[in-house]
Amino acid sequence: MELDYTVKRSAKRKKLTISVERDRTVVVHAPISASDEAIDKAVQSKRQWIYAKTHHEQKLHELPHPPGKEFVNGESALYLGKHYRIQIVDDETAKVHFGNGFTVPRRQASLRREALREWYLEQAREVILPRIDEQARNLGVQVRLVKIVDNRFRWGSCTPKDAVHINWRLIKAPMSVIDYVIVHELAHLLEENHTPRFWNIVRTHTAAMLKAKTWLKENGQLLEEEV
């Protein structure tokens, strides 16, 4: 069976790595000098590993709720790992407010999901961006650019140009999980691949690494829900 994959070359990259995204696409990150034949040979040598990853239960599992569903009074939404009740209120403002729970203006009836999404994005910028700066200082690395991004299939990424991108949906996860993803991406500035040294770096700077990985594995689908 033919194995489909996408190749992304970079002049800064020295080693070839293969990743399987959460939508089951296979991406090869390769140096500019890597030939098509060398890339294909590397992919073929990893066929068994790629098959296992693309058929992992978490990647095959469908979202528990279909995207686009409306939410109503009494439902809940995640924030920093906890569920909070949603209340639809008569309010002249057009913004979502958060206290002991979420309050959503009734005037946003047709745009409730969009309003909550904007609130999440704002909170992600306020909470996660300073956390990246703090963890970068802890690891002694310099980041050229940090961004909160909208990416359905990756929690974070570190580009060859030393830019760190974090998925805004992580604002729904516990802070320990957010820290794990941040440290994971920053560690790539010290060690490009997932070597034993890489994991030692992550483990040293993330006390709850295994717990955070387990939480993401078990609850990742919840973060992708629209509400």
UniProtKB/TrEMBL annotation:
<dbReference type="Pfam" id="PF01863">
    <property type="entry name" value="YgjP-like"/>
</dbReference>
<protein>
    <recommendedName>
        <fullName>YgjP-like metallopeptidase domain-containing protein</fullName>
    </recommendedName>
</protein>
<dbReference type="InterPro" id="IPR053136">
    <property type="entry name" value="UTP_pyrophosphatase-like"/>
</dbReference>
<dbReference type="InterPro" id="IPR002725">
    <property type="entry name" value="YgjP-like_metallopeptidase"/>
</dbReference>
<feature type="domain" description="YgjP-like metallopeptidase">
    <location>
        <begin position="14"/>
        <end position="219"/>
    </location>
</feature>
